[in-house]
Amino acid sequence: MEPLTNWAGNITFGARQVHRPRSVDEVRDLVAAATELRVLGSGHSFNRLADTGGDLVSLAGLPRTVEIAPDRRVVRVDGGIRYGELAARLHAEGLALHNMASLPHISVAGAVATATHGSGVGNGNLATAVAGVEIVRADGELVTLFRGDDDFPGSVAALGALGAVVALTLDVQPAFELRQYVYDNLPAAAVRSELPEILADGYSVSLFTRWTSTDVDQVWLKRRDPLTAPVFHGATLADGPRHPVPGMPAENCTEQGGVPGPWHERLPHFRMEFTPSSGEELQSEWHVPLDRANDAIDAVAGIRERVADVLQVSELRTIAADDLWLSPNHQRDSLALHFTWIADTEAVLPVVADVERVLAPLGARPHLGKIFTSAPALPRVADFAALVRRFDPAGKFRNEFLARLLG
């Protein structure tokens, strides 16, 4: 097998071979026969979560499934579909998801497994849209769990530890339009005194900073209703389209300037028709209680010179609380502090440790698909470990990453 890497190229997988089954029955046979394997999504994790010394299984070849329920409240999708394709098909049926991540090219099952998210004080992460999950467990049996089942909160954002997720049932709602506005140079004083209002002033709000000062470089607002003010909490309306990373082409980003458009063409930061190449970047992210947001910003600002030296851009977003066991938003509304680093692992890791150190007193929880160095404090990890033992008693889906996480 040719060496296989993740999207960023910082991880070379150690798998013996990669299987690409074409049916759920093939997945069941592969899983039942294997001794060690992991399921690979779109490869957008930045750590060894998906790595294995055994076999990798890609579900991208499963038949595309988009089955809308008669009541039009949920949709059943296959385990290999990506958000860009699903969103376009839902919109054609007059339906929408509640939110999307900044990049629409990621797989639904992979994003759900790692509790990946968009933004918005009223919006849960992408895993909160899951109403049902279909898993091929270690013995090859297909198990379905639905919202309300005892094991369900541990089976959604489950890091692939329970088995191969071959289908998901997702909540949907009527399609809607959004407008996207970008404002430049939000003053630090406004962040300090008006942060709750700023973060709640849109369906989805993102603050971008390079930590070169205590100001915010860009505010991205995604709103249902028009916003006509040329000034937003002291920030000024951008005079043209922007990219979050200075110097990068803005044409790769979704339309700005308040032009109304479909939900799936505004919620992501990047266009679906833009195909990202291998990312020249590394990523980390930590989630803190939303009521400690200013404390978290102050903590990072205290080491901002260290951070800025190896940073491309940082994004601050909000996520509503949920009940999922491994979610970083478990039982608390959160501010996520996301860091897009330069592609230099040796230079970045000491700074990651510094950020973890200053955020630890605030109860920070890492995004488990990104780079972190300290053992995460996850409130339901013992319950999850017990669930894993029931689904996979021999550790077929376990790897070194999960062994460290679960103990």
TrEMBL record:
One of its GO terms (molecular function) is L-gulono-1,4-lactone dehydrogenase activity. The keyword Oxidoreductase applies. SUPFAM superfamilies: FAD-binding/transporter-associated domain-like. GO terms for cellular component: membrane. It holds the Pfam family FAD_binding_4. Its EC number is 1.1.3.41. Keywords: Oxidoreductase. Residues 11-175 form the FAD-binding PCMH-type domain. It is an enzyme of class 1 (oxidoreductase). PANTHER family: D-ARABINONO-1,4-LACTONE OXIDASE (PTHR43762:SF1), L-GULONOLACTONE OXIDASE (PTHR43762). This is Xylitol oxidase. It comes from Actinoplanes octamycinicus.
